[in-house]
Design goal:
The structure holds three protein chains of three kinds. Chain A is of the alpha/beta class. Chain A is built from 14 helices and twelve strands. In chain A, helix 1 packs across helix 3 and helix 4 packs across helix 13. The two termini of chain A are about 40 Å apart. Chain B is built from eleven helices and no strands. In chain B, helix 6 crosses helix 7. The longest helix of chain B is centred in the C-terminal third of the chain and has 46 residues. Chain C is about 70% helix and about 5% strand. Chain C is flat and about 80 Å long. Chain C is mostly helical. The chains are: A alpha/beta, B mainly alpha, C mainly alpha.
Chain lengths: ~400, ~375, ~375
């Protein structure tokens, strides 16, 4: 038994350190892992738990060529509870991060992430001092930043980009499977200027498709949402003359069918006919998403790489203070032929100095893991997230090193 | 404490025995019988008085909380304030122009739910208490109570997955054929996220509340009254109308009000099912012109709102408070009035009856007398 | 059938027979209502078969045709009074059957969709997840133990606080206070207002209250949620108990006083047992109302997938919250999330059913013998 568990441990550790960054190799080793698991059976579980400690310590020594980023070293005997919450876009990725953190870094840390609060609620609770960190689809506003300085006694509030995803435009039209929509058409549909599916603008984007004359039912969010904020900003940045409404978390165009939550939109689109809506790509399930264009001419569907490429092109740092990593995303700059035009960036917000040093240590350990190469891979595997560029992760680790 | 005493010394404080409310059907007897008093009595009285006072304290605390939280937003200038002229509160010149449509939406949606739900609920209660075979009644009563156990989230999901698609053909038909009628007007719904669907689900939600309380009340009707009416030849319906309903009126109205309170405060069902707009609208069959309710609006917009917007939303909650009070007040005033009127109407019914049905005449006129007779008999024994 | 009965019929207004009465006036055959029902169902089936069949439409139209037929025949053959009686009976039955469709539909939906997730593990395990370091995949195991614990503790504490307060207030209003007294009036008025508190506001209130009392970093707890639920529960308990206590006949109380029994004993030995069935119904309604709340729980107790037994510290989950969260924030496999949402919902319904059964047993135990 002991031997078996040991072998599993060393084997897993090796896989982890050498193969993760290259996509293809992982697939091969994964099938290998299934065989190994079948052999070892339940012992593999013990093996995994044992590897947890090995994950970060063994890592740096065997770093591959493109230098994976690692978080600060975590004491595996660390215990405590982190209370956090906010962005529901991170609702799918946070549980994965938490499980991976418990599995590889510190088993005894309990992390409660409340995705029901929404970004606004998360930041408000964090500003009140109820949360150790907040997840938010928007960086702190200047007035919130000022307010937060009081909270972070002696330190500074920091916005750390952590989750990169994309807004998908989903539709259900009888007989249409490969819909392509230019940003102008998207803006016209969502501002209700195009009313039927056989409109000339849609035809122009889809010369080959046979489009029915059914009316378009535009499905939007009835609740405030970071997804709405990103989507309206996309329309505003790329088509300012068509989309003249306000950019923000509340859907600004009256006369659409409003549904609660991303799941509400997805359900209503799937259940209806001639429907179109937008939702975070991680939550669209089996629905078809349109290929969209930005300011460029190419129609691009969501891929993790496409979102990373878009982030590289569109984001420019706009630090609000020491260690702060706020990024301004300008959607009009996304022109690449494979860059996904509607990326969605979500932050983790915390203080560099926590009132309770123990909480600071826990937060540092967890955020450090989230912003490591492995943490980002976990997000990619389990929530379809796009890994953040290594340069951003390195900056993030510098900020995280300040947390205490 | 002092207010309640009847002037009797040394804490021997038994008040009117029938401390029935002004709405009670039995406020005729107001004899004062003094019960002996022991220390246990005083403790118990203190406890009940304490609980009643605690409710006042809790409510005062909630009210103060609401007012303090809502005041900045109610007083703010909504056109210039950078928080309030964006997001969910954008486009409103003041708090009142924001909350107005929401109040309308709340009243409108819950009224539809009540119109659908209340008569059926009372029908169910009557069926279980007076029509169903006794053995069946217990089972049926339990089944209806079971429905009260279904949480509102489940009703919301049921509304999305079952009711929306179920009502959609009917909605399309009404919209196409009776579209001239303001209720059915508007753009055809593509998803079924209409007020009709929302209110229908809420109507089902309030069914068990209204029917289980009404049922208990119908069952409590003194059997002698009913038997007297039946013995005098009244049909079952006449018995119910003349012996059961007058007795149960206050309780049934309370049950309906509880149902209405539930409907007005209902958050999840409306939030999940209805596609809302903050507007004044009568339409019940569209996706695009549904008046939003206060509770759903609060739940939908609260998470992403800035602090001042949150305060505005809490202000709308305060208004829900106010209108639920107003509705209760009006309803109570209405039953007190009809309570007096009903006696008169009963006699009118008798006068209108055809001379031929003498048996019924006896039944109708005898019932109040019987009531008195029994009352006198009871107190005398 | 009816044609043979017709000649016997006498209109109640018939001037030649002012003494006409129920014994001699015409009567419809004993099973007339059944025949009428079968007839209207058959006729409407025919009509609908021509127009395109629709189950619900068929039932609804049949019901209307039935009511009209019964009313017309009965008023011709019997009397208007009997006709009204029959029509009302029909209406009540129709109302009941109408209501039964959604009731059955809701319960069936919950059971059918939830039963597949309702395994022994789902009930006895907390939600868990496992991280595979080799593939970086997280696998989730569904479980509801953390929510069952949370539901029982949060609702239990809320009930422990609200039922005594609510019941005692109702007793005060009905047994002690004069209805005209300012205190009684104020309390009735306040209870009315309290029914209008939106659930989310109750959550916010408890959250703010505990932010002040225990500080913002410890505010999320099951107890905070219990306080929020109590605010929602108390008015329902007071309202329903008040009505039930009012219905206890005053003769009973008077008889008790006449025998020299103290007021305390009269209330606890006579009034409460007499009303116990109604009181329990009201209390169970209140429990059912708050046990399914989501918004105040999210605000006051936050959200967690971890098992937490301590209601006084740390986030807690409830079954309603779990169902809502699984629907609103599905994982990558949307269907699996929705299935587990229905599973949690079914579990919640079962839990309330069990509580209801226990409550009824208790009520039966305390109820006076032979009263019902």
């Amino acid at each position: 038994m002991f031997v078996a568990s040991l072998s599993a441990r060393s084997w897993v550790a090796k896989t982890h350190t050498t193969h993760i960054p290259e996509g293809n190799t992982v697939k091969i080793t994964r099938s290998g892992s299934i065989a190994a698991f079948a052999l070892i059976g339940t012992l593999a579980l013990a093996g995994c738990a044992a590897t947890s400690t090995g994950g970060s310590t063994a890592g740096p020594s065997a770093s591959p060529a493109e230098a994976a980023v690692f978080g600060p070293k975590v004491d595996p005997s660390l215990t405590g509870t982190i209370t956090a919450g906010g962005s529901s876009a991170q609702g799918a990725v946070q549980p994965a991060w938490i499980t991976a953190f418990n599995g590889t870094q510190a088993k005894g840390v309990t992390i409660n992430y409340d995705k029901s609060q929404g970004s606004g609620g998360g930041v408000t609770n964090w500003l009140n001092g109820s949360y150790d960190y907040a997840g938010s689809d928007a960086a702190l506003k200047p007035e919130q930043y000022t307010q937060a300085q009081a909270l972070c006694a002696g330190g500074a509030p920091v916005d750390i980009p952590a989750y990169l995803s994309g807004v998908a435009i989903i539709y259900k039209v009888d007989g249409v499977t490969d819909l392509q929509l230019s940003s102008a058409t998207v803006a016209k549909i969502f501002t209700l200027q195009i009313k039927t599916w056989d409109d000339a603008a849609i035809k122009a984007d889809n010369p080959k498709a046979t489009l029915p004359s059914t009316p378009i039912t535009v499905v939007t969010r009835s609740d405030g949402s970071g997804t709405t904020a990103n989507f309206t900003k996309y329309m505003h940045d790329t088509q300012p003359s068509i989309f003249t409404q306000a950019v923000g978390t509340a859907w600004p165009v009256p006369g659409t069918s409003g549904q609660q939550g991303g799941s509400g939109v997805v359900n209503a689109v799937a259940a209806g006919s001639g429907t179109i809506g937008y939702a975070d790509q991680s939550g669209i399930g089996a629905n078809t998403a349109a290929k969209v264009s930005g300011t460029g001419k190419d129609f691009v569907g969501y891929t993790a790489d496409g979102a990373t490429e878009a982030f590289d092109a569109a984001a420019s740092p706009a630090a609000q203070g020491d260690g702060d990593l706020t990024e301004i995303v300008d959607y009009s700059k996304i022109t690449g032929a494979t860059a996904y035009p509607i990326p969605l960036l979500s932050y983790l917000i915390t203080c560099t100095v926590h009132k309770d040093a123990a909480q600071g240590k826990l937060t540092q350990a967890f955020l450090g893991y989230v912003l490591s190469t492995q943490g980002q891979q976990v997000g990619a595997k389990n929530a379809g997230a796009a890994p953040l560029p290594t340069s951003v992760l390195k900056l993030a680790q510098k900020t995280i090193a300040l947390i205490k | 404490m002092s207010t309640h005493t009847t002037g009797s010394p040394a804490g021997a404080k038994s008040t009117g025995v029938t401390a029935s409310g002004p709405l009670s059907p039995r406020n005729s007897v107001r004899t004062r019988v003094k019960a002996p008093s022991r220390p246990g009595d005083r403790v118990f009285f203190g406890l009940s008085l304490g609980s009643a006072s605690l409710i006042m304290v809790i409510l005062a605390a909630v009210a103060i909380f609401l007012i303090v939280q809502a005041a900045p937003a109610i007083g703010a200038n909504w056109t210039t304030n950078s928080d309030l002229n964006t997001g969910p509160t954008a486009g409103h010149s003041s708090f009142w122009s924001y909350v107005g449509p929401l109040i309308w939406g709340t009243v409108w949606s819950s009224a539809i739910a009540l119109v659908i739900g209340a008569p059926i609920a009372i029908g169910i209660a009557l069926f279980i208490s007076h029509y169903a075979p006794r053995r069946l009644a217990g089972v049926l009563g339990y089944l209806v109570d079971l429905l009260a156990a279904v949480p509102s989230v489940v009703f919301g999901l049921w509304g999305i997955f079952v009711i929306r698609p179920f009502l959609l053909p009917l909605e399309h038909w009404l919209n196409a054929n009776l579209g001239w009628f303001p209720l059915f007007a508007g753009q055809q719904s593509g998803t079924g996220s209409t007020i009709l669907a929302g209110s229908f689900v809420v109507a089902v939600m309030i069914l068990p509340i209204i029917s289980s309380i009404s049922r208990e009340i119908f069952l409590q009707t003194p059997r002698l009254h009913e038997e007297a009416a039946l013995a005098l030849g009244a049909t079952k319906w006449e018995t119910i109308r003349l012996a059961v309903f007058p007795y149960a009126r206050s309780g049934v109205v309370s049950a309906v009000l509880l149902g209405l309170g539930r409907a007005m405060g209902e958050t999840m069902a409306f939030a999940l099912i209805v596609s809302p707009s903050v507007i004044f609208s009568l339409a019940v069959l569209t996706d695009t012109r549904n008046s939003q309710t206060i509770a759903a609006n609060l739940a939908l917009n609260f998470p992403e709102s800035s602090p001042l917007q949150r305060e505005a939303l809490i202000g709308t909650g305060l208004m829900l408070f106010v209108i639920s009070f107003a509705v209760n007040f009006l309803a109570r005033a209405a039953i007190t009035r009809t309570g007096k009127g009903a006696q008169r109407r009963k006699l009118e019914v008798v006068a209108v009856l055809p001379a031929a049905s003498t048996t019924f005449e006896i039944a109708a006129t005898a019932t109040p007398e019987q009531e008195k007779a029994f009352g006198a008999d009871g107190s005398g024994s | 059938m009816t044609s043979t009965a017709l000649p016997k019929a006498r209109s109640p207004r018939n001037p030649r027979n002012p003494q006409g009465n129920a014994l001699t006036s015409g009567q419809l055959p004993r099973f007339f209502e059944l025949y009428a029902l079968a007839g209207s169902l058959a006729v409407c089936a025919g009509v609908f078969a021509l127009m395109g069949f629709n189950l619900v439409g068929w039932l609804v139209v049949s019901a209307i045709v039935y009511l009209i037929a019964v009313g017309v025949f009965s008023s011709i053959v019997e009397s208007r009074r009997k006709a009204t009686d029959r029509v009302v009976r029909g209406l009540v039955v129709v109302a009941f059957l109408l209501a039964f469709i959604p009731l059955v539909s809701t319960l069936a939906t919950v059971i059918v969709r939830g039963i597949s997730s309702l395994t022994l593990n789902f009930v006895t395990q907390a939600a868990g997840s496992h991280f595979d370091v080799a593939t970086l995949k997280v696998t989730n195991t569904e479980g509801a133990l953390q929510s069952i614990v949370g539901t029982l503790e949060i609702t239990g504490i809320a009930a422990l606080m609200s039922i005594p307060i609510g019941l005692l207030t109702a007793i005060y209003l009905v047994e002690y206070a004069q209805p005209t007294q300012w205190m009684a009036r104020t309390v009735t008025f306040l209870v009315d207002v309290m029914t209008g508190i939106p659930s989310i506001v109750a959550g916010l209130f408890a959250f703010s209250l505990f932010s002040i009392i225990v500080g913002p970093s410890k505010v999320f707890s099951g107890f905070t949620a219990s306080v929020a639920l109590s605010v929602l529960m108390i008015p329902i308990v007071v309202r329903s108990s008040e009505e039930m206590l009012k219905l206890v006949s005053s003769e009973l109380r008077e008889a008790s006083y006449a025998l020299g029994v103290t007021k305390f004993a009269t209330i606890t030995r006579i009034v409460l047992p007499t009303a116990v069935a109604g009181l329990v119904t009201g209390i169970m309604l209140a429990v059912a109302r708050v046990i399914g709340e989501t918004a105040p729980i999210f605000i006051a107790a936050s959200f967690t997938n971890n098992l937490n037994f301590n209601a006084f510290s740390g986030p807690m989950s409830t079954l309603a919250v779990q169902a809502y969260a699984a629907y609103k924030f599905p994982g990558k496999d949307i269907q699996a999330s929705i299935d587990s949402a229905w599973g949690a919902a079914l579990l919640l319904v079962l839990l309330v059913v069990i509580l209801n059964l226990i409550a009824r047993l208790v009520a039966r135990f305390f109820a006076p013998k032979g009263l019902r």
